[in-house]
Give the backbone structure.
Amino acid sequence: MGSSPVYELDHEVESGYVSGCSSEASSPEIYFTKPHLAFLNRQLQDLEPQEILYWCVTTLPSLFQETAFGLTGLTTLEMLSKMKIPRPQMVNLLFFDTLHHFPETLRLIDRIRGRFPLVNLHIYKPAGADSAKEFARQHGERLWETNDQLYDWLAKVEPAQRAYRELRVSAVLTGRRRSQGGKRGDIDVVEVDEAGLVKVNAFANWSFDQVRNYIKANDVPYNELLDRGYKSVGDWHSTEPVKAGEGERTGRWQGQQKTECGIHNPRSKFAQFLREQELKKQQEALHQALGLELEIAS
């Protein structure tokens, strides 16, 4: 299939794992026992990304690709566009617009639309905000500095969970690779998160040079920031160029003990964080009420 606008649509059980829709009354679309999942990872471990993607498209229902249009995501798109598969399912895109992406990233989206016109692009933004100004008005200036966990929840995790729910996503293709280091250093090809969402890391074994060379060899549009020393591109406020010899994600969250934006962190971490935030609000409201009572009494 030749490369080709992307249409924009705004808007564990003990015996094994079930898909992300397992809380619904209907039966889960995907179910893996733990031994089955281990077997799949042994079988897929030594395959090339194209072979893993073929397995995904022919095996996993309700499959989507999560991407911020980095090199691995673009390579995934290009490989999928060239697959010869009888009765293939369309793998639509999920882009989580934090409202703080680089202008270069947003411009790239228009070029991708031109190359892959048959792919639907679902864009999800923070609830109730369409711009960085609106986000700051609602949650305060530079929230990523004052409360980075809350920022991750509002800008990335909640929109992702909303997308999974509304689109009934059962499985996603990610751009994670072991060569990126950090928590990604030992990822499996197929993972299942706490809510049962299947995550496939088809390029787990590939390096930065391999995806970059594939993009150049196939003349795929890419983020122009990569020509200015950037290797991993996220929000403008937490992404820097990297020096020669540094890891490709070294430019993310410099000076912080942080390697992930939140989407790939355990959901229980954010559930606990939200409980703590709610408790803090309740305590502040109680202290305020007590202060008023003391004021009135005096």
Notes: The CA atoms of residues 33 and 221 lie 40 Å apart. DSSP finds nine helices and nine strands in the chain. The first helix runs from residue 34 to 44. The longest strand covers residues 92-96.
